[in-house]
TrEMBL record:
InterPro entries: Asp/Glu/hydantoin_racemase, Asp/Glu_race, Glu_race. The gene is murI. Belongs to the aspartate/glutamate racemases family. The active site is at 73 (proton donor/acceptor), 180 (proton donor/acceptor). This is Glutamate racemase. It catalyses: L-glutamate = D-glutamate.
Protein backbone atom coordinates (compact mmCIF):
# COMPACT_ATOMS: atom_id res chain seq x y z
CA UNK A 1 0.00 0.00 0.00
CA UNK A 2 1.11 3.56 -0.76
CA UNK A 3 -1.00 6.54 0.29
CA UNK A 4 1.02 9.15 -1.57
CA UNK A 5 -0.73 11.06 -4.35
CA UNK A 6 -0.67 10.53 -8.10
CA UNK A 7 0.99 13.52 -9.77
CA UNK A 8 -0.26 14.96 -13.07
CA UNK A 9 1.10 17.80 -15.20
CA UNK A 10 0.05 19.72 -18.28
CA UNK A 11 0.82 22.96 -20.09
CA UNK A 12 -2.55 24.34 -18.98
CA UNK A 13 -6.13 23.31 -18.29
CA UNK A 14 -6.19 20.45 -20.81
CA UNK A 15 -4.92 18.07 -18.17
CA UNK A 16 -8.29 18.29 -16.44
CA UNK A 17 -9.52 15.86 -19.11
CA UNK A 18 -7.09 13.28 -17.71
CA UNK A 19 -7.56 14.23 -14.05
CA UNK A 20 -11.30 13.63 -14.39
CA UNK A 21 -10.86 10.13 -15.84
CA UNK A 22 -8.20 9.17 -13.27
CA UNK A 23 -10.42 10.24 -10.36
CA UNK A 24 -13.33 8.28 -11.82
CA UNK A 25 -11.22 5.16 -12.31
CA UNK A 26 -9.32 5.43 -9.01
CA UNK A 27 -11.69 7.12 -6.54
CA UNK A 28 -9.63 6.04 -3.53
CA UNK A 29 -6.48 7.80 -4.79
CA UNK A 30 -5.31 11.33 -4.06
CA UNK A 31 -4.11 13.50 -6.94
CA UNK A 32 -1.93 16.60 -7.36
CA UNK A 33 -2.25 18.44 -10.68
CA UNK A 34 -0.13 21.31 -11.94
CA UNK A 35 -0.96 23.25 -15.09
CA UNK A 36 1.81 25.46 -16.46
CA UNK A 37 -0.60 28.06 -17.80
CA UNK A 38 1.95 30.87 -17.53
CA UNK A 39 3.95 29.22 -20.32
CA UNK A 40 1.25 27.70 -22.50
CA UNK A 41 0.99 26.81 -25.30
CA UNK A 42 3.86 24.33 -25.42
CA UNK A 43 3.14 23.45 -29.03
CA UNK A 44 4.93 26.45 -30.52
CA UNK A 45 8.07 26.09 -28.38
CA UNK A 46 11.31 24.28 -29.20
CA UNK A 47 11.82 20.75 -27.98
CA UNK A 48 14.45 21.91 -25.50
CA UNK A 49 12.11 24.55 -24.11
CA UNK A 50 9.38 21.95 -23.63
CA UNK A 51 11.83 19.63 -21.85
CA UNK A 52 12.93 22.36 -19.43
CA UNK A 53 9.39 23.53 -18.67
CA UNK A 54 8.26 19.96 -18.13
CA UNK A 55 11.24 19.29 -15.88
CA UNK A 56 10.12 22.20 -13.65
CA UNK A 57 6.66 20.67 -13.25
CA UNK A 58 8.15 17.24 -12.57
CA UNK A 59 10.37 18.71 -9.86
CA UNK A 60 7.35 20.40 -8.31
CA UNK A 61 5.47 17.10 -8.19
CA UNK A 62 8.52 15.34 -6.73
CA UNK A 63 8.59 17.96 -3.97
CA UNK A 64 5.08 16.72 -3.11
CA UNK A 65 6.34 13.10 -2.85
CA UNK A 66 4.04 11.72 -5.52
CA UNK A 67 4.22 7.98 -6.16
CA UNK A 68 3.55 8.13 -9.90
CA UNK A 69 3.57 10.88 -12.53
CA UNK A 70 1.19 11.21 -15.46
CA UNK A 71 2.15 13.49 -18.33
CA UNK A 72 -1.37 14.74 -19.10
CA UNK A 73 0.11 16.60 -22.05
CA UNK A 74 0.85 15.13 -25.46
CA UNK A 75 3.55 17.69 -26.25
CA UNK A 76 5.40 16.97 -23.02
CA UNK A 77 5.04 13.24 -23.62
CA UNK A 78 6.46 13.50 -27.14
CA UNK A 79 9.33 15.84 -26.29
CA UNK A 80 10.33 15.09 -22.71
CA UNK A 81 9.00 11.83 -21.31
CA UNK A 82 11.84 9.52 -22.36
CA UNK A 83 14.48 11.99 -21.18
CA UNK A 84 12.91 12.81 -17.81
CA UNK A 85 12.10 9.19 -17.01
CA UNK A 86 15.85 8.61 -16.84
CA UNK A 87 16.18 11.41 -14.28
CA UNK A 88 13.50 10.40 -11.75
CA UNK A 89 12.50 7.28 -9.84
CA UNK A 90 8.69 7.35 -10.02
CA UNK A 91 7.29 5.84 -13.19
CA UNK A 92 6.02 8.31 -15.76
CA UNK A 93 2.91 7.48 -17.78
CA UNK A 94 2.28 9.38 -21.01
CA UNK A 95 -0.84 9.94 -23.07
CA UNK A 96 0.50 9.08 -26.52
CA UNK A 97 1.00 5.37 -25.99
CA UNK A 98 -2.47 5.10 -24.48
CA UNK A 99 -4.13 7.09 -27.24
CA UNK A 100 -2.44 5.06 -29.95
CA UNK A 101 -3.48 1.80 -28.30
CA UNK A 102 -7.11 2.91 -28.12
CA UNK A 103 -7.16 4.04 -31.76
CA UNK A 104 -5.50 0.85 -33.01
CA UNK A 105 -8.14 -1.21 -31.26
CA UNK A 106 -11.19 0.57 -32.66
CA UNK A 107 -10.29 1.51 -36.25
CA UNK A 108 -12.05 -0.67 -38.82
CA UNK A 109 -10.57 0.60 -42.07
CA UNK A 110 -7.08 1.05 -40.59
CA UNK A 111 -7.02 4.73 -41.45
CA UNK A 112 -6.41 6.99 -38.46
CA UNK A 113 -6.05 10.76 -38.32
CA UNK A 114 -4.21 12.52 -35.50
CA UNK A 115 -4.61 16.20 -34.65
CA UNK A 116 -2.16 17.73 -32.20
CA UNK A 117 0.33 20.52 -31.60
CA UNK A 118 3.22 21.07 -33.99
CA UNK A 119 5.77 19.56 -31.57
CA UNK A 120 3.72 16.39 -31.18
CA UNK A 121 3.09 16.05 -34.92
CA UNK A 122 6.73 16.74 -35.82
CA UNK A 123 7.83 13.97 -33.44
CA UNK A 124 5.66 11.42 -35.33
CA UNK A 125 5.12 9.78 -31.95
CA UNK A 126 1.50 8.82 -32.66
CA UNK A 127 2.35 7.47 -36.11
CA UNK A 128 5.17 5.37 -34.69
CA UNK A 129 3.06 4.02 -31.83
CA UNK A 130 0.11 3.20 -34.09
CA UNK A 131 2.23 1.42 -36.67
CA UNK A 132 4.14 -0.40 -33.95
CA UNK A 133 0.82 -1.94 -32.92
CA UNK A 134 -0.35 -2.53 -36.49
CA UNK A 135 1.98 -1.81 -39.45
CA UNK A 136 -1.03 -1.75 -41.79
CA UNK A 137 -2.55 1.34 -40.17
CA UNK A 138 -2.32 4.42 -42.37
CA UNK A 139 -1.78 7.55 -40.26
CA UNK A 140 -2.57 11.10 -41.33
CA UNK A 141 -1.00 13.70 -39.05
CA UNK A 142 -2.21 17.29 -38.83
CA UNK A 143 -0.85 20.09 -36.69
CA UNK A 144 -3.61 22.36 -35.40
CA UNK A 145 -1.67 24.99 -33.41
CA UNK A 146 -4.48 27.53 -33.04
CA UNK A 147 -6.84 25.27 -31.12
CA UNK A 148 -5.24 24.81 -27.69
CA UNK A 149 -5.04 28.56 -26.91
CA UNK A 150 -8.65 29.06 -28.04
CA UNK A 151 -9.88 26.13 -25.96
CA UNK A 152 -7.92 27.48 -22.98
CA UNK A 153 -10.01 30.64 -23.31
CA UNK A 154 -13.25 28.60 -23.56
CA UNK A 155 -14.33 30.43 -26.70
CA UNK A 156 -16.85 29.16 -29.27
CA UNK A 157 -14.54 26.83 -31.19
CA UNK A 158 -16.73 25.08 -33.78
CA UNK A 159 -15.84 27.33 -36.70
CA UNK A 160 -12.13 27.21 -35.88
CA UNK A 161 -12.21 23.41 -35.38
CA UNK A 162 -13.85 22.97 -38.78
CA UNK A 163 -11.31 25.27 -40.42
CA UNK A 164 -8.38 23.54 -38.74
CA UNK A 165 -9.61 20.09 -39.82
CA UNK A 166 -10.23 21.14 -43.44
CA UNK A 167 -6.94 19.54 -44.70
CA UNK A 168 -8.32 16.14 -43.63
CA UNK A 169 -11.11 16.28 -46.21
CA UNK A 170 -11.08 13.21 -48.47
CA UNK A 171 -8.70 11.17 -46.27
CA UNK A 172 -11.33 8.45 -45.57
CA UNK A 173 -10.25 7.92 -41.95
CA UNK A 174 -12.68 6.32 -39.53
CA UNK A 175 -10.86 7.28 -36.31
CA UNK A 176 -9.67 10.68 -35.11
CA UNK A 177 -7.23 10.90 -32.20
CA UNK A 178 -7.39 14.06 -30.12
CA UNK A 179 -3.64 14.32 -29.66
CA UNK A 180 -3.72 17.27 -27.27
CA UNK A 181 -5.35 17.02 -23.85
CA UNK A 182 -6.97 20.42 -24.41
CA UNK A 183 -8.99 19.03 -27.31
CA UNK A 184 -11.39 16.81 -25.31
CA UNK A 185 -12.61 20.03 -23.67
CA UNK A 186 -14.12 20.74 -27.11
CA UNK A 187 -14.90 17.14 -28.07
CA UNK A 188 -18.46 17.97 -29.15
CA UNK A 189 -17.07 20.44 -31.69
CA UNK A 190 -14.64 17.85 -33.08
CA UNK A 191 -17.42 15.28 -33.38
CA UNK A 192 -19.62 17.78 -35.20
CA UNK A 193 -16.78 18.69 -37.54
CA UNK A 194 -15.91 15.12 -38.62
CA UNK A 195 -19.39 13.63 -38.63
CA UNK A 196 -21.02 10.57 -37.09
CA UNK A 197 -19.05 8.02 -39.15
CA UNK A 198 -15.75 8.93 -37.47
CA UNK A 199 -14.91 7.71 -33.97
CA UNK A 200 -13.20 10.38 -31.88
CA UNK A 201 -10.62 9.04 -29.42
CA UNK A 202 -9.89 10.76 -26.13
CA UNK A 203 -6.64 9.17 -24.86
CA UNK A 204 -7.60 10.02 -21.25
CA UNK A 205 -9.83 6.94 -20.99
CA UNK A 206 -6.97 4.58 -21.78
CA UNK A 207 -4.52 6.58 -19.61
CA UNK A 208 -6.74 5.99 -16.58
CA UNK A 209 -6.96 2.27 -17.30
CA UNK A 210 -3.21 1.96 -17.85
CA UNK A 211 -2.54 3.86 -14.60
CA UNK A 212 -4.79 1.42 -12.77
CA UNK A 213 -2.90 -1.53 -14.30
CA UNK A 214 0.51 -0.11 -13.36
CA UNK A 215 -0.54 0.61 -9.80
CA UNK A 216 -1.95 -2.87 -9.41
CA UNK A 217 1.24 -4.42 -10.78
CA UNK A 218 3.52 -2.33 -8.56
CA UNK A 219 1.33 -2.51 -5.43
CA UNK A 220 0.83 1.26 -5.37
CA UNK A 221 -2.83 1.38 -4.39
CA UNK A 222 -3.72 3.41 -1.32
CA UNK A 223 -5.04 1.75 1.80
CA UNK A 224 -8.82 1.13 1.48
CA UNK A 225 -9.38 3.39 4.49
CA UNK A 226 -7.44 6.24 2.86
CA UNK A 227 -9.46 9.42 2.29
CA UNK A 228 -8.63 10.81 -1.13
CA UNK A 229 -7.71 14.49 -1.52
CA UNK A 230 -7.15 16.51 -4.68
CA UNK A 231 -4.81 19.49 -5.01
CA UNK A 232 -4.64 21.89 -7.94
CA UNK A 233 -1.82 24.28 -8.81
CA UNK A 234 -1.04 26.61 -11.69
CA UNK A 235 1.81 28.88 -12.69
CA UNK A 236 -0.76 31.21 -14.23
CA UNK A 237 -3.94 32.91 -13.02
CA UNK A 238 -5.47 30.71 -10.28
CA UNK A 239 -8.94 32.25 -10.62
CA UNK A 240 -9.11 31.58 -14.36
CA UNK A 241 -7.64 28.12 -13.85
CA UNK A 242 -10.23 27.33 -11.17
CA UNK A 243 -13.15 28.55 -13.26
CA UNK A 244 -12.14 26.40 -16.21
CA UNK A 245 -11.50 23.43 -13.94
CA UNK A 246 -14.87 23.72 -12.21
CA UNK A 247 -16.77 23.65 -15.46
CA UNK A 248 -14.95 20.58 -16.70
CA UNK A 249 -14.84 18.61 -13.44
CA UNK A 250 -18.44 19.60 -12.73
CA UNK A 251 -17.76 20.79 -9.19
CA UNK A 252 -18.94 23.92 -7.39
CA UNK A 253 -15.63 24.75 -5.73
CA UNK A 254 -12.05 24.17 -6.85
CA UNK A 255 -9.30 25.61 -4.63
CA UNK A 256 -6.28 26.45 -6.78
CA UNK A 257 -2.90 27.74 -5.64
CA UNK A 258 -0.46 29.69 -7.77
CA UNK A 259 3.14 28.46 -7.73
CA UNK A 260 6.47 29.46 -9.25
CA UNK A 261 8.36 26.40 -10.51
CA UNK A 262 11.41 28.20 -11.90
CA UNK A 263 13.66 27.62 -8.90
CA UNK A 264 12.80 23.98 -8.21
Amino acid sequence: MNNHAIGLLDSGVGGFSVVKKVIQKLPNESTIFIGDSANMPYGDKTTQEVIELTRRSVNFLLSKNVKLIIFACNTATAAAMDILQKEVDPQIIGVIQSGALAAARITNNKKVAVVATKVTIDSHAYRDQLQFRDPDIQVTELATPRLAPLIEKREDNLAEVKASLAPLAGKDFDTLVLGCTHYPLAQAEFEAAVGKNVQVVDPADQVAQYTYNVMKRDHLFSDPAHEATHEYYTTGDPVKFANLGKSFLEVDELPVKQVNTENL
